[in-house]
Hints:
Elements: E1 4-9, E2 24-25, E3 28-29, H1 30-40, E4 46-51, H2 54-63, E5 66-69, H3 81-96, E6 102-106, H4 115-126, E7 132-139, E8 144-146, E9 150-153, E10 156-159, E11 170-172, E12 175-177, E13 188-189, E14 209-210, E15 219-220, H5 258-261, E16 282-284, E17 288-290, E18 307-318, H6 319-325, E19 333-337, H7 349-364, E20 389-392, E21 404-405, E22 411-412, H8 417-428, E23 432-437, H9 442-451, E24 455-457, H10 462-473, E25 480-484, H11 490-495, E26 498-501, H12 507-512, E27 515-516, H13 525-534
Parallel strand pairs: 1-4, 1-6, 4-5, 7-19, 20-23, 20-25, 23-24, 25-26, 26-27
Antiparallel strand pairs: 2-3, 6-18, 7-18, 8-17, 9-10, 9-16, 11-12, 13-18, 14-15, 21-22
Helix pairs in contact: 1-2, 8-13
Amino acid sequence: MPSVLAVVPARGGSKGVPGKNLAPVGGIPLVARAVRACRAAALVTDVVVSTDDPAVAAMARAAGAEVVERPAALAGDTATSEAAVLHALDAYESATGRAVDTVLLVQCTSPFLTADDIDGVAAPVLRREADCALTVAPFHGFLWREGRGTARTADGPCPTEAEDVPDELYVSDGVGGLRVPGVPRRALVAVGEHPPYAAGSPEGPDEPYVPDGPGGSRVPRDGRPPFAPGTPDESGQPDQPRVPDAREAPDAADDSTATAATALRRPATMPPPVVTGRPAAEPLPTGARGVNHDASHRPRRQDRPQDLLETGAAYAMRADGFRTARHRFFGRVEPVRTDPARVLEVDDPADLARARALAPLLDAAVPPPPADTQAGTPDGFPGRDDIDAVVLDFDGTQTDDRVLVDADGREFVAVHRGDGLGVAALRRAGLAVLILSTEVNGVVAARARKLRVPVVHGTDHKDAALKEWCAEQGIAPERVLYAGNDVNDLSCLRLVGWPVAVADAHPAVRAEARAVTRTPGGAGAVREIAGRILGPEL
């Protein structure tokens, strides 16, 4: 079987989000989510985490990965992911004596990466259909950029100097990339639908141009003609935009870039631009210009070419080619489409907050990991041998947090029968079970009697009640699983060793939890917890 090594770079330092790689999303640290996805991928044979941080290393090992200690020289802010992967690749082969056929770069800052995504990039490289592959998402948007040094004509804005073109816009062999506000800091990858880019444009190699205007001249991608300083237009005024007549042959002496452009011809279906005399360009201090479109033309979505947004989540490379190129892109590059709804990179606190808000929805769509990776793993749920007790909140955990009140003021709630089966299974397994509730309500006591478990309710200090109960039972709090849903559970969650939140819990509770159920409160969350502890057959 070919050796496929997944490398997860996860250094300890992070300026945008301190301790980012250990930050929980859906109750699971980012580094552990990446390891879990790699381990669940069918084509991956080994997973290593490259880190300089002992806490990250411990979490990686708990998640089931091997750890490669990253030297300080490769752990600074300027260190590249490629350098970390090359180092991990060499260290792995040296330690195991096995050669790696395909190496993967998997970023733990993409929390919603799936095993299918990872297999998707590995497959074309393993089949030798590509030298490298990357995850991408379809993109149809109009992109704009604000920048200094913008000139405006009747045809629209245009850059004036090479240094005025932002560095994040790059074009090389038909592949362009840019930073798009609100989306991952990755590239747009053209896959043949766009006209080619001509290198060596007047604005420098970073400006996209569509070749073959009239007479073979190069016309900027947005349809504006190039400026030819000192060339008279029809009125005899110098410094006006000029496009040669279609009958003219490009003159290398007049335009050193025209000759190279003549080799790239306009498709027959693309009409030539209409060019007339225009007033001279006027520099403006600020302005915006279209990056991947002509601002004067607004085609329908179905008529626009589909770009591909590099998600930054997963890359696959032939190991030998990667060593030679020392870069993740070389030879034939295969884009692998992923679900755009799952594309999110955690680079700052706002990204982390969005990821935590989306986790209940997106995590529920992913099948749970294999049974042998559930207990005591990055899912955050303990195995039977890890705990001695399970303590359950009532409202919002065993119910959906709604209360029905009749005309006489009597309250009614609904519970899930599956939760009763789960509690019974926990008791049979020898675990102590307690219901702990702030509310004073006869229904709580009635439910506890039905389940044959003790109850403490009507307390404003749940953590104190929990400590007292643990002392009475002779149970260490670190060997207790507590499940809750709202802010009045936070003190208990911080007290125990295994804090668990239900899927629809308050964001502060989810952030504090070590694990989060896939099931909302009142819909069988307690049974899910029992199944995670005792096995999926429950």
